[in-house]
Amino acid sequence: MHQELVDRRRWISEQRFLHALNYCMLLPGPEAIQLAIYISWLLHGTVAAIVAGVLFFLPAAV
Fold first, then answer.
1. Is the pTM of the predicted complex or chain greater than 0.90?
2. 11: helix, coil or strand?
3. With 90 as the cut, is the pLDDT of residue 15 above it?
4. Cβ of 38: how many Cβ atoms within 10 Å?
5. CA distance linking residue 7 with residue 24, whole number of Å
6. Torsion of CA 12, 24, 47, 57, to 10 degrees
7. What sign for the dihedral angle of Cα 40, 44, 46, 50?
């Protein structure tokens, strides 16, 4: 996720990514899902966070 968001697409800075990762590591549960939802929220707001959460859980639910 770091390589895609920070290195390849440059959507988020290294410092902001590490801050988000540290924040997600404090919360209980899977970090990857929380990080995807949090970064979606940072970049595009609440609707994007909901969409990211649903799309992240959808394959496992199916």
1. no
2. coil
3. yes
4. 19
5. 20
6. 110
7. negative
